[in-house]
Prior knowledge:
Elements: H1 3-8, H2 11-31, H3 35-63, H4 66-72, H5 74-83, H6 94-100, H7 106-134, H8 139-150, H9 156-177, H10 182-198, H11 204-216, H12 224-253, H13 255-267
Helix pairs in contact: 2-6, 3-4, 3-5, 3-7, 3-11, 4-10, 5-10, 7-11, 8-11, 9-10, 9-12, 11-12
Amino acid sequence: xxxxxxxxxxxxxxxxxxxxxxxxxxxxxxxxxxxxxxxxxxxxxxxxxxxxxxxxxxxxxxxxxxxxxxxxxxxxxxxxxxxxxxxxxxxxxxxxxxxxxxxxxxxxxxxxxxxxxxxxxxxxxxxxxxxxxxxxxxxxxxxxxxxxxxxxxxxxxxxxxxxxxxxxxxxxxxxxxxxxxxxxxxxxxxxxxxxxxxxxxxxxxxxxxxxxxxxxxxxxxxxxxxxxxxxxxxxxxxxxxxxxxxxxxxxxxxxxxxxxxxxxxxxxx
Length: 269
């Protein structure tokens, strides 16, 4: 960024520009990782979310409160933040902005999305299986909780829940990049968990893990085919929510910076 640009911009614009610079700087290596690194961080992301699901189910079982259970789920999002692992819906801001800036291709983005989603689900399935074996008292809660999502139906209401879920989790990513304070980032993770899980928004990975826990009890009123149909509906809503509610507006606001970044990438050193 030219010094004259920094002088002409106000403090708010400078903060937006600096955050956009950090986004592109982070996104470039994320989209060009080796397969081994991408798979490993994505598996860990599923496991981290699974730990959050374990605490969510336990608190819900003990208290019957969805709001307290949502707050307990913050363990999973904090683990994602501090462990630098990868969650599918965290790929709606940083990687997309990087592609728009010309620092990666759309094929790189699709590769990342597909790998992260599949590995999140595999890692989460393993973790929830361990939880269901370790805590048989949670079986009834897990089956009932999973049925709320998988049996929710394909209606305007449930689609809006998925859109809101994608928007909220992408907002968390935006807040993380809007501050360098670790306290601020952890606060963003806790509040996002409360809104996402406490209010029952639909999230393709989080709620899949809850559905897996129910399936692993053997008493869930749904099967894996039902879950796959639900997953497609949730992923569609999450992508639309993440891209339209948060990412698109962020890119419009940072359009000039991203255009400058694109020019510098093409020009080379």
